[in-house]
Design goal:
Layout lengths: L2 H6 L13 H30 L3 H23 L18 E3 L4 H10 L2 H20 L1 H4 L5 H23 L11 H20 L3 H4 L1 H15 L6 H5 L17 H29 L6 H21 L4 E3 L1 H10 L4 H15 L2 H8 L3 H24 L5 H19 L9 H7 L3 H15 L8
Antiparallel strand pairs: 1-2
Helix pairs in contact: 2-3, 2-4, 2-15, 3-13, 3-15, 3-16, 4-5, 5-12, 5-13, 7-17, 7-18, 7-20, 8-10, 8-17, 10-17, 12-13, 12-14, 12-19, 18-20
């Protein structure tokens, strides 16, 4: 049977190729959408707030996030190229979405240079990821779990202030820090926590989404919800090429480029977890190369469409490995749902009406999860004196310098943008350097 024939045959949801029964596939596709849609649109909402975008542009940014996530997922599920040779995309059952890993750096760039500088830096980052993809077997040695774990842990730490500011109502709001904001935020967090730890199945999986819905209802009775943007939004809108513009600002390109390099390596973990957990094998070199090259190129495309940087979604990896549902058509239907949602401005407008205190209460648990993922990666290595030095010094310098950004006051402005706005850049550089130069114990060698 040829590849084309196998793709269109009737099959089980537990097989990679073929078309499954729709009554089985649709609920499972919806499950993937529910698990990732909040994480997919939240970075766009945060960046839009920092950049001071007006409501129509905020809606456009959220739309673009959904559409580019769908396009990235489609490419990974259904690669371009012949099966025997190089293919653009992995062909593995993964879901892609806008990544939180870039949020801290994007906030700094949006604040200092505007949102166009993010998309210029994203093009550079996409090129870096593409190059890494072609040489992945050689470059990945520089980023063992100790280094990537340190970076992921620092990313989680860097996002905590954002979540807390949102819980208090958003720093730009006149009612920032009011008891009403904190009450709604804590109740939202309580709903998420209870559903996540005391329920199973759909409610556990959708705990963040259900928490936001619950918090939204509570906030509505506090008079915090303004539905005017929903009434003003249209029912259909296609993406606009370069709607936000593109600007190449050197310090922004360096900061985002480093993150793309790290995320390209980190993606190996998600793709490996997917195949080992659901297909009982490791991904091939060709699959990894196609995956990361595809990741880089779709991010370049995304910058022109106004979609923020994407990455593989770990929560969806968890669904695939738990259910062992690997059918690409099933996951493709999830991407189709994202694409349709991205073409409907009214849906995106609803998301812009979510009060910041609700968003903060729901997402602080996501940021905590990111930090804990980093700790898991770190502790997968032996925590000897050398390794604790690598982690401790990297995190302390990254977080410390960022919190005391005035300490870089005598340096040029570009140095402050690269090293003083987000702890991730310094933590990455220090972790890679120390891991290369510090001597390893004899037993480790």
């Amino acid at each position: 049977m040829t590849e084309k024939e196998s793709r269109f045959k009737r099959t089980s949801i537990f097989e990679l190729d073929g078309i499954p029964e729709m009554e089985e596939a649709i609920p499972l596709a919806l499950q993937h959408v529910v698990a990732m849609i909040v994480g997919c649109v939240t970075p766009a909402i945060i960046v839009a707030g920092v950049a001071g975008l007006k409501t129509p542009d905020r809606v456009m940014l959220i739309q673009s996030a959904l559409m580019v996530s769908a396009i990235s997922t489609f490419l990974q599920l259904f690669p371009i190229g012949k099966k025997g040779g190089f293919r653009l995309g992995s062909g593995l059952p993964v879901i892609m979405g806008v990544s939180f890993a870039y949020v801290a750096s994007m906030q700094a760039i949006a604040s200092d240079f505007g949102i166009a500088a993010i998309f210029g830096a994203q093009i550079v980052g996409g090129i870096i990821a593409t190059v890494i993809g072609f040489f992945i077997d050689k470059i990945r040695k520089v980023f063992p779990p100790l280094v990537t774990g340190t970076v992921v842990f620092t990313i989680g730490l860097s996002l905590y202030p954002t979540a807390v500011n949102y819980m208090a109502g958003g720093a730009a709001n006149p009612d920032y820090g009011s008891w009403q904001n904190w009450l709604v935020a804590i109740l939202t967090l309580a709903i998420v926590t209870i559903l996540n730890h005391f329920t199973k199945g759909f409610t556990k999986l959708a705990s963040i989404l259900l928490g936001i819905i619950g918090g939204y209802i509570i906030a509505f009775f506090f008079g915090m919800v303004d539905l005017k943007p929903v009434l003003d939004a249209s029912f259909f809108q296609a993406p606009e090429i370069m709607h936000f513009g593109i600007q190449f600002e050197p310090s922004s390109c360096i900061a985002i480029g480093l993150l793309f390099a790290i995320n390209a390596i980190q993606a190996i973990g998600d793709f490996t977890a997917t195949t080992t957990g659901s297909m009982d094998r490791e991904p091939t070199d060709k699959e990894l190369k196609g995956a990361i090259v595809g990741y880089g190129l779709t991010n370049i495309l995304g910058s022109f469409l106004g979609g923020l940087p994407t990455a593989s979604y770990s929560q969806n990896v968890g669904i695939v490995t738990t259910t062992r549902v690997i059918n690409r058509v099933c996951l493709g239907m999830a991407a189709g749902m994202l694409l349709i949602a991205g073409l409907v401005p009214k849906f995106s407008a609803v998301l812009t009406t979510i009060p910041q205190c609700v968003l903060g209460g729901a997402t602080i648990s996501v940021f905590a999860s990111i930090a804990m993922t980093g700790i898991k990666l770190i502790t997968s290595q032996e925590m000897n004196y050398r390794n604790t030095s690598v982690v401790g010094l990297s995190v302390s310098l990254g977080v410390g310098i960022t919190q005391a950004a005035a300490s870089l006051g005598q340096f040029p402005a570009w140095a402050t943008t690269i090293f003083g706005k987000s702890p991730v850049v310094i933590a990455t550089i220090v972790a890679v350097f120390l891991n290369l130069v510090l001597p390893k114990p004899k037993n480790a060698e």
